[in-house]
Please model this.
Amino acid sequence: MKYRKLGQSGLQISSVSLGNWLTMGKAIDQTTSDDLVSTALDCGINFLDTADIYNIGEGELALGKAIQGRRREDLVIASKCFFPMSEGVNDRGLSRKHIHESVKGSLKRLGIEYLDLYQCHRPDPETPVQETVMAMDDLIRQGHILYWGVSMWPAELIEAAVQMARTHGWHQPISNQPRYNLLDRSIEEAVIPASEKHGLGQVVFSPLAQGVLSGKYRPGENAPADTRAGDERVNQFIGQFMTEDVLGRVAKFVELAAASAMKPTQLALAWCLRQKNVSSVIVGATSSRQLLENAAAADMDLDEGVMAEVEAVFG
Model:
């Protein structure tokens, strides 16, 4: 495993990390969750990402059980807040109240005393940026979190948060968690330049486009029942990629990966990691075999010829 600094902080995280968005506490049982965390740590993955909203707390509970007995210093644990956790009018968003109450809930479910990274899961148009940045600074000074970051924030809000922190002498964000893959490169235009300017690193989610880039879905064929696209519990976001044009391009991509002696998943992850501002790619997994295959991408460097061929397929 290789490690990269998260933004301009001193925090070193594995370039491939384990997330549990649609898996732990939902699609897989606790035994499988335990095995995944054990496999992750054994192969050098130290960054474990979750959020309070993942199956309304069940994702954090499952991860908390899986890390019991592990040396806390070896783990970099990240969680997030923003989405509604109940019908309560204040149990949502990025207000000072919700942030302080949310972090306590996450720590309790995870069974730990502090989070290494706490992230604003989405922008909150109802709350002043100053209030959110001040609340995150409070949590750091109180010892509940060590660093803070954002997720899916546009460049202008990243700029605003950093400037607010600098103006008041508060801790500024060190990371952004965006969607980034060969089918969605939107962050390259403004988010990455703003992040590079202000010292934020990307911890990207959906680097395999919900598994589409694995090549498991073929043009003109129905999604297999045992896959994400074929599972109604977790397939609400994958439909945008399930077009004949996209699947045709992915079929060519699979052939390119094979010619380069790589799995398509490995090539897709290595492509993301070619971007220096990407500190880590977050992968989900339902088996240790799958996780080990993805983790191997950390050691794969792409030459210019392969890069050019990938660009020719996806543009």
Notes: The chain has one domain: 3-208+275-299. DSSP finds ten helices and ten strands in the chain. The mean pLDDT is 94. The domain at 3-208+275-299 is CATH 3.20.20.100 (TIM Barrel).
